[in-house]
């Protein structure tokens, strides 16, 4: 299946993402997780498909993550929903005025985003949260098409190094740097199309439980995004 067509809308693009079978390893994994489940979610019906993006099609802020969690987005069918990373993200977005509520539990929980769109470098849950480089490459056309359709985006917040690299590969730096831009929490770079890229540590449990990423550190990322877009 082609990753994009000239006639795509945001809605039709997401509908096609849901049916994607470009990466056999990821398709097999996401479907196996959905069948076998884990004990705490044994009674739930898992989504088990590529997870669509979510948010305001007129957004000026684009939040770019790595991939759906096996028992988060792969279970609920909504990006960053049903896991601790999502708890951190939507709480921060709510504080900064981009979300109408601080929690994201399931697709029907009433969450709405304003001036914000949430997507990922890879749309399927990968084993050990580690997609292969070729899988990231196969998924990139979806992100490229989203960026074409989201014409008002002025800030991209990249959650983690893979998302950071995906943003640069998809948009490109405004000027060729003499060396590769360094990933660091709260680092800013100007991309083409007059887009500001803000890097952030991913709100994974590995980072939040160890204190590498604290709630004030994460909140400041979205406060800064709000300052830029006004």
Strands, helices and their partners?
Layout: H1 10-18, H2 24-36, E1 54-55, E2 61-65, H3 73-76, H4 84-95, E3 116-120, H5 133-149, E4 155-159, H6 161-171, E5 188-191, E6 195-200, H7 205-208, H8 215-229
End-to-end separation: 39 Å
Order of helices and strands: HHEEHHEHEHEEHH
Portion of residues in beta strands equals 5-15%
Number of domains: 1
Low-confidence stretches: none
Q: Taking strands numbered 1, 2, ... along the chain, how are they ordered across the largest sheet?
A: 1-3-2-4-6-5
What's the name of the CATH homologous superfamily? Uracil-DNA glycosylase-like domain
Alpha carbon gyration radius? 17 Å
What number is the mean pLDDT? 93
Shape: globular
CATH topology: Uracil-DNA Glycosylase, subunit E
Can you count the helices? 8
Question: Sheet with the most strands?
Answer: 6 strands, mixed
Q: Could you tell me the number of beta strands?
A: 6
What is the CATH level 1 assignment? Alpha Beta
What is the level-2 CATH architecture name? Answer: 3-Layer(aba) Sandwich
Briefly characterize the structure.
The protein is α/β, with parallel strands linked by helices and 230 residues long. The chain has helices at residues 10-18, 24-36, 73-76, 84-95, 133-149, 161-171, 205-208, 215-229, and strands at residues 54-55, 61-65, 116-120, 155-159, 188-191, 195-200. It has a six-stranded mixed sheet, sandwiched between helices.
